[in-house]
Amino acid sequence: KKVYLNGKIVSAEDAKISVFDRGFLFGDGIYEVMVQLENGLFYKKAHLDRLQDNLNKIGIQYNIKEIDDNLEVLLKASNLTDQSCLIYMQVTRGVAPRKHSYPKGVPATVMMYALPFSLPHINPKNMKAILEPDFRWHRCDIKSTSLLGNIMTNEAAMNANTNEAALVRDGVISEGSHTNIFFVKDGTVLTHPANEHILNGITRKIVLKLCSDLDIPVNEKPIAENEIEHMDEAFFTGTTTQVASIAQLGSRTFYKNDEIGKVTIKLQKAFAQLREINTAN
Ligand code: PLP
């Protein structure tokens, strides 16, 4: 297995970083996940632009052009050129004596790897989710490698034999532990607005665009926990989740069997069709 680390392709065993890396000490870094499907890197530019935006937000001086230029190098070294795969990448503030303030003139640590990974055209899984308090910080718009709140709530979902945790902040549903969440009510698609309480998912943005293309009305507004019972459909979105129907959310059962809501199906099908074109740029 190969890893791209600071400008070089090395084997996974040789991919070593300092214990003084700020990513290790503070979780001081940004990550990104994208997939390569039949027609190339799915929404590559959107993912790389988000990475650059996030790095700018936290003042890590790094130009994602290096990553862009080396994606093909990594895929070739990993024998994954033109194969379905997942690419993980992260950029941290680099190696410096442990001190909270940002060090000056330290190069970022840049790491990425690719794994074989396939995605069905439509996520066959009707998801079950629990509701968990959203005790994360107030900058969930930053795709930080510090994911304690996300992994703790996801672990709670796994322990409850469900697939995901939907997070509740101040009485409203923000997002999932590693997904965005949407509802459908009387034909209108509803989702939390893209502010500092959610990560603005690339899949979320794609779905909103599909709604506009398909003339499905959208309202970006927070849904209260006590409104869930009145919703007609619900689904999670994410790079590896795609558009996944929710069968059960907390005490609300949407479907007892494999049924899927009609707006959800429409969006799943439209989303699957995007694989037939090259969306990389
Ligand atoms: N929300 C959170 C907290 C996430 O971690 C993710 C993806 O990892 C998403 C939403 C979905 O984002 P995307 O569609 O860009 O994968």
Concise synopsis of the structure shown:
With 281 residues, the protein is α+β, with helices and mostly antiparallel strands. It has helices spanning 22-26, 44-57, 65-77, 148-159, 202-213, 262-273; strands spanning 2-5, 8-11, 29-37, 40-41, 85-92, 109-116, 127-133, 164-169, 172-176, 180-185, 188-191, 218-220, 223-224, 233-238, 242-249, 252-253.
CATH class of the largest domain: Alpha Beta
The major pleated sheet works out as: 10 strands, mixed
Question: What name does the CATH topology of the largest domain carry?
Answer: D-amino Acid Aminotransferase, Chain A, domain 2
The CATH superfamily of the largest domain is: D-amino Acid Aminotransferase, subunit A, domain 2
Q: State which percent range the strand residues make up.
A: 25-35%
Please state the CA-atom Rg, rounded to the nearest Å: 19 Å
Could you say which small molecules are bound to this protein? pyridoxal-5'-phosphate
What structural class do you assign from the helix and strand content? Answer: alpha+beta
Which parts are unreliable, with pLDDT below 50 for 5 consecutive residues or more? none
CATH A-level architecture of the largest domain? Alpha-Beta Barrel
Q: What's the total count of β strands?
A: 16
Number of domains: 2
Q: Outline, from the CA principal axes?
A: globular
Quote the average pLDDT.
98
Helix content: 10-25%
Measured distance between first and last alpha carbons: 28 Å
- By DSSP (H or I, 4+ residues per run), the number of helices equals 6
Strand/helix succession: EEHEEHHEEEHEEEEHEEEEEH
